[in-house]
Request: fold
Amino acid sequence: MRLSLNQITTKGWSLPEAVQGCVDADIPAIGLWRDKVAEVGVAEAAKRVRDAGLAVSSLCRGGFLTASGPDGRQCALAENFSALEEAAELGTDTLVMVVGGLPEGSRDLVAARERVADLLGELAPHAGDFGVRLAIEPLHPMFCADRAVVSTLGQALDLAERFPAEQVGVVVDSYHVWWDPDLAAQIARAGAGGRIASYQVCDWTLPLPADALLGRGHVGDGHIDFRAMTDQVTAAGYTGWIEVEIFNETIWNSPGEQTLRTMIERHRAHVEAP
Reply:
């Protein structure tokens, strides 16, 4: 399998617990989160993953590039330089970028998106030096104000294509892009340019919770056609890891071992046939 556990899916587990969970469940890769890495330190995290024989499919997350003013710009650059260094030490070639929402008090989406492009221009050459790709993740439009002013795969590609493909790519996250009527064409476009850096899956379930961020479900529990989307991503030339990334309080409160068993069953049934 190309299955990878994105660490947020088992939020209650520490990094050592998540690593051991993957080993026990024969999941070959893990997508790490910086806060969990920080709990044990980057060097120790890298050693534990390496000793367990796991691949690191990605590091979450960099980005939040839209803060205004010189201080906001410098803080964003410094934070992302650190994230690139951590990604390289952890052995992944993919830093997931959630680009940030509107600056406080602003309604200027155009300026915010240009600010993202500007800072990507600063970061991209450094990403190349580290051998890490900045993977722009478009988020569903309901997160435009507070998390990501990039809402579609097409917008993400418009940004990424300003830079070399080995420096800047895109994330195809089923939860955020499944609704897009232009999705198939944009996946093909991304593949033609060698831009797909990560493929993340979880389902769109209803009703949405009060905190819409936590509305993701296990693959197969909602409304997304994963076989069709995976076929499109595969046809576009993507052969990398398929990360399960779920934000859901009920799943977070379930035993991690149970979550991994469900992940594997649903992956085989809906995403990647054995």
Observations:
- Residues 175 and 218 are 11 Å apart (CA to CA).
- The longest strand covers residues 55-63.
- The chain is about 45% helix and 15% strand.
- The chain has a mean pLDDT of 97.
